[in-house]
Phosphate transport system permease protein PstA (Protofrankia coriariae), 352 residues
Amino acid sequence: MSTSTATVAAAPGGLNLVGRQLPRAAFPAIGAGAVAVTVVLYVLAPITSRIQFVLIAGALYLIGQTVASIAVEGSRRATDRGVTTLVYLAFLLAVIPLVAVLASVISKGAQRVDVDFLTHSMRNIGARDAGGGIYHALIGTLEQIALASLFAVPFSLLVAIYLVEYGRGRISRTISFFVDVLTGLPSVIAGLFILAFYILALERKPTGFAGALALTILMIPVVVRSAEEMLKLVPNDLREASYALGVSRWRTIVKVVIPTALPGIITGVMLAVARVAGETAPLLLTIFGTDSINFNPFSGPQSALPLYIYSQAGQPQQVAIDRAWGAALTLIVLVMLLNAAARLVARLTRVR
């Protein structure tokens, strides 16, 4: 065999045939060349966006790597390297918006968040006053999410158990169809439904409870689908072993199936919580908002962090915009803390 196409390397366990490969120094050199060419284009051409700079540099790197790999390693390995690079570039493109959003919110919101901001409401705070906080909105968000989870999680889990363990025939297909419909339901439709049915038809007042009902509608399909998929992943051998021991079906579900799928179910619940935590449209129609602290979600209007952000960001004063950024940062941190707590619970309850 020619040494131009392959080399023979000795190894303790025998012989390893290793084809020609690009040296490790080639990849930093190709990257530096791609960045240098992009800088030249940045100077000569009307390129002003950083995102354009990253995209052009990534494309040039991919082209340079592919050409060098074909010349040294052949088309087969060049194709493999090209696809691998495309995967990394796609990951980078997906992460860039997330990092940009987080960096923007943290840089602008951290300047406003302090103890007073977290422990005071907007009561008696004028449009141009520098004070005020989010305590009333934070209380409202926590209570509404708790109520929505209390309503949605048990119901959704029962639906998922029925679809996986009992559901057969037309009824099961009908339930799955309506769950799919609810999955794509715009959030404002949920708010309109609660407004028309609960507030107007039943002549109820806007309350945090009404907002929780709207959030419940949005949570149900997410929890049902995630719990259904997790229950399907439980091996049938576990069920059959339980039946062989004479355990009834419902006790098998409670003692074997649900504990096995519990970590995934908790993750799905937190996905649903993360979705509804930032919803604004249904709350605009159901809780109406207030600047005062209301600990009772069943009486009177109540505020929420998404509604607070919406109202403050729409005002022309810089102090109001700063409060909106601070509330946005608090909402992100709140969702992250809830997710971290859910992961900890899932890890502690994992069946070994």
